[in-house]
Design a protein that fits this description.
α3 (132-143) packs across α4 and α15 packs across α18 (420-441). The protein has three domains: 21-176, 2-Layer Sandwich (Nucleotidyltransferase, domain 5); 189-312, Helix Hairpins, CATH 1.10.287; 322-479, no CATH class. It has helices at 81-92, 111-122, 132-143, 150-167, 181-214, 218-221, 229-237, 241-247, 249-258, 262-265, 268-276, 286-316, 322-325, 333-343, 352-358, 383-396, 405-415, 420-441, 447-454; strands at residues 39-44, 49-56, 74-78, 101-105, 127-130, 173-175, 330-331, 363-368, 371-377, 465-466. The chain is built from 19 helices and ten strands. It is globular and about 85 Å long. The two termini are 43 Å apart. The strands form three sheets. Strands 3-2-1-4-5-6 form a six-stranded mixed sheet. Strands 7-10 form a two-stranded parallel ribbon. A hairpin with a 4-residue loop joins β1 (39-44) and β2 (49-56). With 493 residues, the chain is of the alpha/beta class.
């Protein structure tokens, strides 16, 4: 089979293409049948209708078929069983062997593409997902400001599949290895959790802003947050300092105890004095209603979050990777679900370097000519797993967590002059390497073995510490380091 792609520098090709080498993501899919050219398929996902473009390898030969891929025939098919039969007939015209194809499609939020993704995967077609932003950027690179069409995007994704496989261009492409609908649903639930957490944070900030106007002294009584559960229970019953002052200390203390604010109840006289002397603005009508509405919204959202976490726990309970991942020094059902949903199976990563790159914790060097300018975290890889490993590394370095080999590794790096934020990045990278070995060998984390590998003295075993799910997104910021955590320095390990 001739894998020649022609002159990629000609019109319709790329002037400069970067190959990823051994540290890039692994090759995906089965080789096509002998003598059969690979057929690259791009699928633009819609709610009612999808659009597919199948382009055989020879049509990407720019010297022989100039821009032929831009004119490839597409097929529009409905997002149901009848439509999938139309797609199958369209693909069968090129080849009836699924391994001859490489199919790219967009995630599009998860559900719109899920049934098609499962249909293609179960039929044996190799499938990749490419980020929506990567398609948009590539469209602008090829067509400039030309108006987007579904047919154009389908053809673009087919070409991106060609460049990814034949040349090594990554395009933020992720492999799809799903065997059950529940695996795909787990990805969506992890995404739901992230969105739900952001909405809760937004409402908390809104409530604190309102209270800063109506009862500014309350932050003295609740120094951590005026939007916490005890503070919200107080504000729900007594929305203004005037109402609080009129209620009397005995009633307020009883309410605080009922809300499990026992220490606050002992300081009720202090709270009453703050209410009597408050300079907060008197609010009535809509403003007071809005404060109560935000409190009700927070109660609803936090209950929804707990239900979602419970469902995520159920979804990962029987997965073979769960006890392995949760044997690490820190754990959370969200981290476990994120890793399971994005890794799929570790068997598709031949080396730890590819695994580390896929999870988003590997360095890149920016240079011009022969001059090296900066090093930093590569912008490839899966963002959710990058965040999860970064949060796990940050939590392991906090003083409230028992010392681990990872923290001693961090101390060793900073002791040799590495910046703290950079050292945290190295810890996250090391965590991905350790995780790869655990999953590959089907073994749980062994702190003694890890300490021995790092040349550290042996200590007592460490039980896993569970991260508080309500602050996972803020754990890195809580360290109080303003340095860029994506900066990477070269240092012998």
């Amino acid at each position: 089979m001739d894998h020649s792609s022609g002159n990629l520098g000609q019109k319709g090709g790329e002037k400069h293409l970067k190959t990823t080498g051994g540290d890039g993501p692994p090759a995906i899919g089965y080789p096509p049948a002998e003598g059969q050219p690979r057929i690259y398929v791009g699928v633009d996902i819609g709610y009612r209708e999808h659009v597919a473009a199948a382009i055989p390898l020879p049509l990407f030969n720019a010297s022989r078929y100039q821009d032929a891929w831009k004119r490839a025939k597409t097929v529009h098919f409905s997002s149901d069983a009848a439509g999938f039969r139309v797609l199958r007939r369209y693909l069968d015209k090129y080849s009836e062997e699924p391994s001859d194809f490489l199919i790219l499609l967009e995630p599009t939020g998860g559900y719109y593409a899920m049934t098609l993704l499962m249909y293609l995967s179960h039929a044996g077609y190799p499938v990749l997902q490419v980020e929506n932003k990567a398609v948009k950027d590539y469209r602008e690179k090829i067509f400039g400001s030309q108006t987007k069409t579904d047919d154009t995007d389908a053809r673009l994704m087919a070409r991106m599949g060609f460049l990814h496989e034949m040349v090594g261009e990554e395009f933020s492409i992720q492999a799809v290895f799903l065997t059950r609908a529940d695996d795909a649903a787990l990805r969506v639930m992890v995404r739901d959790f992230s969105k739900l957490q952001k909405e809760i944070t937004r409402r908390l900030n809104q409530l604190q802003q309102v209270v800063a106007v109506t009862f500014p002294e309350l932050k003295t009584f609740f120094p951590d947050s005026t939007a916490g559960r005890v503070a919200r229970r107080l504000l729900k019953e007594y929305p203004t300092p005037q109402a609080l002052a009129e209620a009397g200390a005995e009633k307020v203390a009883a309410l605080l105890r009922e809300a499990h604010g026992y220490q606050h109840a002992k300081r009720v006289d202090e709270l009453m004095q703050l209410a009597n002397e408050s300079v907060g603005l008197k609010v009535f009508g809509s403003n007071q209603w809005r404060q109560g509405w935000i409190i009700d919204q927070l109660t609803f959202l936090e209950d929804a979050r707990q239900q979602l976490i419970g469902q995520i726990r159920t979804a990962i309970a029987d997965h073979p990777y769960t006890p392995i991942i949760e044997s690490l020094p820190v754990k959370s059902p969200i981290w476990t679900a994120t890793l399971i949903a994005t890794i799929g199976t570790v068997e598709r990563f031949p080396t730890y370097s590819q695994f580390k790159a896929y999870l988003g914790w590997y360095p890149k060097t920016t240079q011009s000519g022969t001059s090296v300018h900066t090093t930093g975290l590569a912008d490839k890889g899966v963002r959710p797993t990058r965040n999860a490993l970064g949060q796990m590394a940050a939590l392991m370095l906090t003083p409230t967590i028992p010392a681990t080999p990872f923290r001693e590794y961090y101390t060793r790096l900073t002791g040799r002059g590495m910046r703290p934020a950079t050292a945290r990045g190295h810890v996250a990278g090391k965590l991905s390497v350790v995780l790869y070995g655990m999953l590959k060998n089907n073994t749980r984390y062994d702190a003694e073995k890890h300490r021995k590998a790092l040349g550290l003295p042996m200590e007592k075993p460490i039980l896993a510490t569970e991260g508080p799910v309500e602050v996972l997104d803020e754990v890195i910021e809580a360290l109080g380091d303003d340095e860029d955590p994506t900066r990477v320095e070269t240092l012998d390990e």
